[in-house]
Each structure stands twice: as structure tokens, then as C-alpha cells.
Amino acid sequence: MSTIDKALSLLNHFSETTPEIGLSQFKALSGFDKGTVHRYLKSLSNIGFLEQDPVSKSYKLGPKLVSLAHVRQATVPVSRVAAVHVDALADSIQELAHASVPQTMGMSTIHFKDGGIRGTRVGFDISEILPFHATSSGIAMLAFGPSSLLEKLENQRLQTFTENTSTDLKTLRTLVEQAHKSGYAYSNQTYETEVCSVAVPFFDKSKTAIGTVAIATPSSRMNRAQQNAFAVSAMAISRKITNDLGGKIPESIQDKWALFETAIQAA
Amino acid sequence: MSTIDKALSLLNHFSETTPEIGLSQFKALSGFDKGTVHRYLKSLSNIGFLEQDPVSKSYKLGPKLVSLAHVRQATVPVSRVAAVHVDALADSIQELAHASVPQTMGMSTIHFKDGGIRGTRVGFDISEILPFHATSSGIAMLAFGPSSLLEKLENQRLQTFTENTSTDLKTLRTLVEQAHKSGYAYSNQTYETEVCSVAVPFFDKSKTAIGTVAIATPSSRMNRAQQNAFAVSAMAISRKITNDLGGKIPESIQDKWALFETAIQAA
DNA sequence: TTTGTCGGTTCATTATTTGAACCGATGTAT
DNA sequence: ATACATCGGTTCAAATAATGAACCGACAAA
User: Fold this and answer.
1) What is the extent of the structural domain holding B93?
2) Are residues B71 and A61, on separate chains, in Cβ contact within 8 Å?
């Protein structure tokens, strides 16, 4: 692990629920030496990745991240494009929908929207990383994205989240194959109890999967018919997102989706 | 300069007009050794600050920046709040308006909006850093923000941008005092020729200036009356932004602005 | 007064970064 | 067909920067 990696890993300790962190707390969270952490924090503050509250002395994420994110958004307008379609999806099916993109450790959500106010509701933290092996978004990404993602996982121990989480490589491979065969990924309480989800990939111009659209619902509302309906909805949205991004869906998947849709409509 | 600073400085070479950069180009831009740059790029890619195009091999800003910016926005909703008021300002006065926040090297714009389509127009690059000494936003920040900003500048050589740029500390101090006295900053072609601007600060809960709202216009459309009208408009917007952020305007400035406004209205 | 904790600094030791030389692939003038 | 240039990427001994135990002053509670 290089110095750069170590310094930047500090940023991962921030989240919506933990927006401010002090020096000692950083030391505890990261396990690095206090002096080292302090130097990291100074560097990160200098370039604007962090800023320090002058009275409480604690650190929070800095404004530079926002300006860089702007440039990123201008470069790759995935968020903007995905957002409008995810919103439409959430509105139409009245369930939580989200779009996510792969990061090193899992899927990072770029946009989500709650589906109205129904009885139970799926909680969602946008800064949370959805692990590849335990979420439908992750499985979809593994199934349709670059195979390097799956290879990276092979050397890691897969964390258990619920009693349904698959933690061995063999069953993970089965899940991925299943997703590949059916054209979408399904997960039943593998990350959080009482939450089911369905996910499909969307693609860039080189027909590479670059992210996923997913629908999450309390498992009490999930059944086979719902699952199929959700998959169809997600596929439709993925087509729109892919299209708006100037991307292309691989023919094999296009065919699979078309078949699935006609089968569901027939039923 | 630490390794961290050097690695992260690479990110500054990206902008809306330069969204993709290759290894050799990075070497040229940064002056670092090729091997070193490559290690930096690998580290930055690993954590998602960059991503590499698998075919062209060039690098662009990565998705992690977006997710971190999200958390930042949730922590400090300056952008969201400023955006709506800046948009309203641009619409009402039909000129370019922007909100900016201080960074190490100058003011970084968090939001801007063009003011309709009139004859000439001010070009604006959101990823550009507005130098403290040569823009109204910068002067406003120096005049009303923490005095440490001005102190930092004292050791640096001030860059010349136009023939109107003040590059010596003495005239800079005069400009800052002027802004402090009048309650707003004015600049006439000190950064770009043919562009004039007016800027006022907005504040946080501890009555510290944390950013500026500015109006920029082609100098052909600027005159004394316009300048006054723009200042009044900017002050009104600053009040709204400050208020929405839960901030407070220092009494001395509140009084100054009130006096100024009544004087203009009387005229 | 003591004790603990906070953020921050110091400097000899240590481990990481550095960069010239190298590689293979691709491109392109001769 | 050949030579030459440029691209991204890698290597490893030498040079340099990162590290962390000990320390400081400020503050707060016991």
C-alpha cells in the first residue's frame, strides 16, 4: 500500500452519517500513527480535499471534491442521464430505484429515488458501497461487466452480511452464471434482511457494462410476478440510459431481454 | 512537496476542455518522471479518482470523486443553496452570475448561470480557479474572509493577466480596503480584458465569509449606475444564501449594505 | 494538583519513492 | 522492408521522503 493509497483511504471514513472526523478518531479508524495521519490530513486539506473546522479542529470533506466532480460529470454524464430515468422508474413502479457504478470494493450508487410512501420502506445510504457478491447490482456487474472484476474477488474473503449471503466462490459463480443466463440479477436478503432486489446493467459505446439500474423492495412485497415485472421495467430503463449515453447493448443481451419481455407479456 | 501533494496535483490538469490525459502528456504537464507519474496514476485509478480508457489508455477523472462530492454536499449544502439563488440572479439581471468558494490558489466556482443571450457574452470555465488578486470574487474574499488568506498571498508573486492587473501588494491592499469600505468588490478587466465584475461575500453561522456571489459583464455594458445596481442585486442574493445556510451577516456589513441600498434607491 | 485527552510537532531511523534505462507494441517516414 | 520515434508500462539500485516514539501546550475532569 503506497503512501498515496493510505492517505486517500482516510477519505473513505466519511459518510452522510459521519461528516466530521477529528485527528484521534482518524488514528483509531485507520490504525495509522498519529503523526502520519496528521501529515496526511494536512496534505489533503492543502489541496482542498478536506477542510478543518477552525474551532472544533475536526475535518470534513473539502470543496475541491465538488469542483473535480463537476469536471467528471461533464466528462462522463452518467449521473445526470441516469438520474432522470431512475426517477421515472421509481415513480412508475412506486419502489426504490437506484443506479450504481463499480468501484474497487463494490458498487457505488450515483442516484436513487424512493418509490412514494408505502407501508414498509427500504432504507438507503447513498455513500454506502454495495458489495459485489451480496447485492443484485454487484452480481449484475460481475455477470455483464469486465471479467477482471470477478477475478479480483477470487483472492478476497467474502464477507457475511445475512444468513443468505453467499460467501464461497463456487456459489458466487453460480449466481453470476444465473444472472448471465436470465439477463438480470436477483438477490433475496443477501445484504440486508427483508430486502430483495433486481438489477440489470447498462453499457457504454464499446458494449461494456459500466453500471447497473436496480429496484429494491421489502421482501414482503416480492414474489415471482413482481420479480419479472421489475426485471422488465429495469431493462426498459437500462435501454434508455444506455442510449442516452451513446452506448450500445451487446446483441446477445438485447436478444435475451427481448425474449424475456415477450414471455412476460404473454403470461 | 509531499508525495501525496504531487500525486493529487495531477488531478488539477483536468478541465472541461481537457477531460482525458495520457501518460506522456501527464509527464509533460507535471514535469515528474514517467515512472513516477505512472505509479501515481495507478494509485489514483485504484481508489477510483481516475479511470483509464481500456483502448486509448488515457486517463479521466473517476467515479469516486462523484460519490465523495455527494457526501460533501450533504455535509455542507453550499452548492445546492447557492445554485437556486444564482440562477434567480442571472435570470433577473440578464447577466452572468456565479457563486465561488475559496481554495488555496484562488476562488473556485461552484455554480454559474449565463444571463440569457445578449449581444456579447462572458465566457466562463467552471473548473478555472479565479485568482484572489485579479478578480472581484477574490478581492471580496480577501476583504471579508479570514485575514490568513491575504497573509498567504504576501509571500507569493502575483501573476499579471491583463494590463490592469494589480501585481504589487500595496495596490492589492488598497483594493481590499476599498472593498471593505464599500461593502462589495469591483474589478475592471483585471483578469480578462473586456470583462468587469462585482462581487459580495456570503457568510456561515460564525459570521465568517465562506464564499462570494459575483456578476460578470462585458465592460461595454458596465457603467457607474450598472455597477451600483449589480452590487445591490448581489447583496440581496448574498442575504438569501447566507440565510438559507443558517449563516449570519456581521452587523457592520449589514449596516453598510443597508446604507448603500437606500442611497442607490434614493438616486 | 493530578491525570487523561485533545491537536499538533520533532527528528533519528527506516522504508518508500525515485528515475535512468529498458521492454514490447504501434505508428510512420525513408 | 527498414529504421526511427513514440506510445504505455516496468525494473531496481540509489536517493529521498515517510515514519512513529517521544514530546509539547492547551484544555477538562477528578
Assistant:
1) 76-266
2) yes
C-alpha cell at A187: 438477490
Rounded, the Å distance between the CA of A36 and C1' of C9 is 11
pTM of the model: 0.83
| Residue A252: alpha-carbon gap to chain centroid | 24
Q: How many domains does chain B have?
A: 2
- In order, the DSSP letters of B125-177 are -TT-EEEGGGSHHHHHHHHHS-HHHHHHHTTSPPPP-STT---SHHHHHHHHH
Residues of B in contact with A126 (CB under 8 A): 67, 70
What backbone phi and psi angles, to 5 degrees, belong to B209? -70, 130
d(CA A51, CA A21): 11
Please give the grid coordinates belonging to residue B265: 434607491
B72 touches chain A (CB under 8 A): yes
Note the pLDDT tens digit of each residue in A242-260.
999 988 899 999 999 999 9
**A156 and A236 housed in the same domain:** yes
* Contact residues, chain A, for B76 at CB < 8 Å: 60, 63
CATH code of the domain containing A50: 1.10.10.10
The nearest alpha carbon in chain B to A7 belongs to B4
What letter represents residue B7's amino acid?
A
What is the C-alpha to C-alpha distance for residues A161 and A131, in angstroms, rounded to an integer? Answer: 10
Each residue of A101-123: pLDDT tens digit? 987 778 988 899 988 776 677 77
Matching residue, cell 448603500? B260
Query: What pLDDT, on the 0 to 100 scale, is given for residue B118?
Result: 66
My answer on whether A84 and A54 are in the same domain is no
Interface subset of A 30-59, CB within 8 angstroms of B: 39-40, 43-44, 46-49, 55
How far off is chain A from B226, nearest CA to CA, in Å? 30
The CA-based angle A79-A82-A83, given to 5 degrees, is 80
- A162 and A245 in a single domain? The answer is yes
For nucleic chain D, which protein residues have CB less than 7 Å from any of its atoms? A 3, 6, 32-36, 39-40; B 2-4, 22-25, 34-35, 38, 41-42, 52, 57-58
Asked whether residue B15 falls in the same domain as residue B116, the answer is no
